[in-house]
Design a protein that fits this description.
heterotrimer, A alpha/beta (380), B mainly beta (158), C alpha/beta (390), A: 380 residues, alpha/beta, Peroxisomal Thiolase, Chain A, domain 1, two-stranded antiparallel ribbon, globular, B: mainly beta, OB fold (Dihydrolipoamide Acetyltransferase, E2P), five-stranded antiparallel β-sheet, three-stranded antiparallel β-sheet, 8 strands, extended
């Protein structure tokens, strides 16, 4: 892959609700921070890509709401409706096609809508939607399938929630730092067996932005430019019954595509840190396996042994992950940004020493149907 | 520092709702399938002539081979529970049954793929992946997926 | 572009679901390019979420789109969705990441209340309570345009007559009819000065295009149609923005189109579009657009739209025929509409447009319109362009 770097990142504070700011206000805040971080002004940006979703925003052509705020005036602009990892992937394509500097931003105001009604609309209107299935109940079907496949118990799944909520204390933009124990998670009420309240990500308001640049335009950022080494994405079947829900096959494929570009053949050894989209605790385990950070069925043991903790040999979600802030669509972009900060050595209190290569993951659709992987930093 | 007027402001929030009615066509394949549920209490799948997979839910074309699947296959009303959950706190607008009810991916006998449906009439703690389940048809059927009321643990004698 | 697939455009396609409709266009495109599903490297798909009430169309439509086990991305920007998808697919290839990319646009407008959904495109506080939907919104532009230029309703009707007559040559078009200006004038007003006959229909339909890289473009049975350049602007966010720009800032009503046009023409080397383009497939959502957009696209001076159109220069056989396919006034499955403009322009460049072919055409302009006076513009050619960005 030609040399493209992330030269600026910006995140807003993430919170359960930010009623004083509209989605456009949040986007303006995130874009301004990314520009400041890159030491650029909006005039230096050639192309803008935005990320939004008409359902979550309660607005047809949801991108229209942020066209002012993202700074796209008199620029080429487009919109990817989907997770931030996908939107940023399209920004990457624009750079690779010859545009020097591309800004991508995404926003989410979870406080303004009713999540189950919206995620119910992911499902087929003829055969599935009237059954009442939505994001949490479908994820529960996947969690059960995964536990059954590998003989895992709910306590093992709970370890992810304990770890990530604890990590969030060191991340100033996280929404939900919590001192919690496996007993607390196990004692929280069932939403959909085996998922309990503390296994599930919160509802969040916030926005984030990144600026990507080609080699020439990244030069001004100096050592703070973090190289994009590989990006890959891939999609599984739609109907839940067509899929092997316990097997993260689409993620494995997406990772293989990203690793090919990044010349990574032994991810467990070559990747220093991972940020994954664990909207539910069990997902972190499945996504670690899909990313090849451990073998199939080994993620529970890897987590229980502390290897994915902040001081472990492959820290996962030291930012607190999606369990500590889940602005849908922005969530995957946050994973990319956290990897950038870690590679730069600028992650502040949650910095992990010596991160050279980091991997970020995001997804679209029910139960991680469509997966995207970014490899950032380091040299091959 | 002078006081910022925003500090003492209570933000106004306007409630709204997207009010768009929908009329989703089931298409020819979906209509054949739903009519069979409604009129004959019979599940139908389609077989891909290339890979041989019997799809349930039925498909006009195989999503992998991209070939037309004109052959209908009659399926049993019994099957295997692939995975399950119990919806404890469903949104009221998303509750076809009184909670707690379950969701399951069920592979019907005669089909190669599973499908999503409701679980009801089971004892607490009795659901297991791999268990046998059977369809309970709704008394009043209108040509919808809810013509199958739900699935329950099978009463079949082995 | 090496493969084109489109469904017949109809007011209602109850015989298929959305996924099956998508599949129909995809299989047509694959067949046209003599490809199988396995040959596709990535898929880009778009529609408008609230027109079918489908969230995550990219993941929902995998059975039909062919994206199973492949990269798929959803891109949507309202009316410009189809052109956005085309541009998105182009960049998938131009990035060097993929060699063969499928672009899909579709809509089943029969499944919902189109105007009810469009009203929700605008700001819930400032615009939505008073916005009248697409028809009333466009009527504001028409009123302003008539006041500015002295154009008449009959001038606009000429465009509607032209496009629907052209549609008689297009077996895929929805409204195919020989009409008179008088007949358009006699249709009822929807929002003065816009009449039923001035507006596009609501349509069910899908379109799929195969984009290929230079490296593999010769591997297909049909000659490629080349992307020569592309540019877009999505400026406005509020219904009052065009008015403010014109009356308060001294600008024009539709600067997005003028800005995109300037960039595009600079890149491609267009100085006299009427002479240089052999054919144009323009997203004209209503008849008055066929007057003003000619001005914004530089085909004539400001206010010269009626004279240009009435001269016959945009008719079949004229200097630069506009919408040989019948355009949006004849078929408007919104998510497919912009992509159909690109597809029709591609067929013209390939010399495969059948009865609607403009003989010898080698340079074409395709546009997308949407959002709040947004503009996407693509130039296609029968010859490969010089290497350049964009």
């Amino acid at each position: 892959m030609e040399r493209v770097a992330v030269i600026g990142v910006g995140m807003t504070q993430f919170a359960r609700e930010r009623p004083a700011e509209t989605a456009a206000d949040l986007v303006f805040e995130a874009c301004t921070r990314a520009l400041e971080d890159a030491r650029l002004s909006i005039e230096d940006v050639d192309v803008v890509i935005t990320g939004s979703n008409d359902f979550f925003d309660g607005r047809t052509i949801s991108s229209m709401a942020v066209m002012d705020a993202c700074g796209s005036y008199d620029k080429n602009v487009s919109t990817v409706e989907g997770d931030g990892t996908f939107g940023a992937a399209h920004a990457l394509m624009r750079v690779l096609a010859g545009w020097g500097t591309v800004l991508y931003c995404a926003h989410h105001k979870g406080s303004e809508s009713v999540m189950p009604l919206i995620t119910n609309a992911m499902f087929d209107p003829i055969f599935e939607r009237f059954l009442g299935i939505e994001a949490v109940t479908s994820a529960a079907l996947q969690a059960r399938a995964y536990m059954d496949r590998w003989g895992l118990d709910e306590e093992t799944l709970a370890l992810v929630s304990v770890k990530n909520h604890g990590n969030a204390f060191r991340n100033p933009v996280a929404q939900l730092p919590l001192e919690t124990t496996v007993e607390d998670v196990m004692g929280s009420p069932y939403i959909a067996d085996p998922l309990k309240r503390l296994d599930c990500a919160p509802v969040t308001d916030g926005a984030a932005a990144v600026i990507l640049a080609d080699r020439e335009h990244a030069r001004s950022a100096g050592s703070r430019a973090v190289r994009v080494r590989g990006v890959g994405y891939s999609c599984d079947a739609f109907h839940l019954g067509d899929r092997d829900l316990a097997d993260p096959s689409a993620l494995r494929d997406a990772a293989a595509r990203a690793y090919r570009g990044a010349a990574i053949d032994d991810p467990a050894r070559q990747i220093d840190l991972a940020e994954v989209s664990e909207v539910f605790g069990y997902m972190e385990l499945m996504w670690c396996e899909g990313l090849g950070l451990c073998g199939p069925g080994e993620a529970g043991e890897m987590t229980a042994s502390g290897r994915t903790a902040r001081d472990g040999d492959i820290p996962v979600n030291v930012s607190g992950g999606c369990l500590s802030a889940n602005p849908v669509l922005v969530s995957g972009l946050n994973r990319v940004i956290e990897c950038v900060l870690q590679v730069r050595g600028e992650a502040g209190e949650h910095q992990v020493e010596g991160v050279r290569t980091a991997v970020a993951q995001g997804f679209n659709g029910p139960c991680g149907q469509s997966q995207c992987v970014w490899v950032l930093g380091g040299e091959e | 520092m002078t006081e910022d007027w925003r500090d003492s402001q209570e933000i106004l929030v306007m409630d709204g709702r997207i009010k768009v009615p929908y009329a989703w066509s089931a298409g020819e394949v979906g209509t054949t399938y739903l009519e069979s549920l409604r009129d004959a209490e019979r599940f139908l799948g389609t077989r891909c002539p290339v890979c041989g997979i019997v799809y349930h839910l039925p498909r006009m074309h195989c999503p992998d081979c991209f070939e037309a699947c004109p052959e209908w296959v009659e399926l049993e009303s019994t099957g295997t529970l692939v995975t399950w959950t119990i919806a404890r706190r469903p949104h009221p607008a998303l509750s076809p049954l009184a909670p707690p009810f379950g969701f399951g991916v069920i592979r019907l006998d005669g089909a190669d793929t599973g499908f999503l449906h409701l679980l009801y009439g089971f004892g607490v703690g009795s659901l297991r992946s791999g268990m046998r389940v059977e369809a309970v048809f709704a008394r009043e059927r209108t040509g919808s997926i809810l013509d199958v009321s739900h699935f329950r643990p099978s009463r079949e004698v082995v | 572009m090496v493969g084109v697939g489109m469904t017949v455009q109809r007011s209602s396609r109850r015989d298929v679901t959305g996924v099956e409709l998508i599949n129909e266009a995809v299989r047509a495109a694959l067949s046209d390019a003599a490809m199988t599903r396995k040959d596709i490297d990535a898929v880009v798909i778009g529609n408008m979420d609230h027109f079918e009430g489908i969230n995550y169309v990219d993941t929902w439509s995998v059975d039909g789109s062919g994206a199973l086990g492949k990269p798929v991305m959803k891109m949507t920007t309202g009316g410009t969705t189809g052109t956005t998808v085309a541009m998105g697919a182009y960049y998938h290839v131009a990035s060097g990441m993929f060699d063969r990319v499928l672009a899909i646009g579709w809509e089943k407008n029969s499944e919902s209340d189109t105007t009810g959904a469009i009203i929700t495109a605008f700001d819930p506080f400032w615009d939505r309570p008073t916005f009248g939907g697409a028809v009333a919104g466009l009527a504001l532009e028409a009123t302003q345009y008539m006041a500015e230029t002295g154009a008449s309703e009959e001038d606009a009707a000429y465009v509607a007559v032209r496009d629907r007559k052209n549609a008689l040559n297009n077996p895929y078009a929805h409204l195919r009819m020989e009409l008179t200006i008088q007949a358009i004038m006699e249709t009822p007003y929807l929002a003065w000065p816009v009449k039923l006959g001035d507006m596009c229909p609501r349509t069910d339909g899908a379109c799929a295009l195969v984009f290929a890289s230079e490296d593999v473009a010769d591997d297909f049975p049909n000659p490629p149609a080349w992307v020569r350049g592309l540019a877009d602007r999505h400026l406005w966010a509020y219904t009052s923005d065009p008015y403010v720009n014109q009356k308060v800032k001294g600008g024009t009503w539709f600067p997005a189109m003028e800005m995109a046009t300037r960039e595009l023409y600079d890149r491609v080397g267009i100085t006299d579009p009427l002479e240089q383009f052999d054919v144009a497939e323009l997203y004209l959502p209503y008849s008055f657009a066929g007057l003003r957009y000619m001005e914004s696209l530089g085909f004539c001076e400001r206010g010269g739209g009626p004279e240009l159109v009435r001269s016959g220069a945009t008719d079949m056989g004229g200097k630069c025929p506009v919408n040989p396919s019948g355009g949006v006034l004849s078929s408007n499955a919104i998510g497919a509409t912009g992509l159909l403009r690109v597809a029709e322009a591609a067929l013209q460049m390939q010399g495969r447009a059948g009865d609607r072919q403009v003989q010898g055409a080698s340079l074409a302009l395709a546009t997308g319109f949407g959002g709040c006076y947004w503009s996407d513009e693509i130039v296609l050619g029968s010859e490969m362009p010089d290497v350049g960005r964009g």
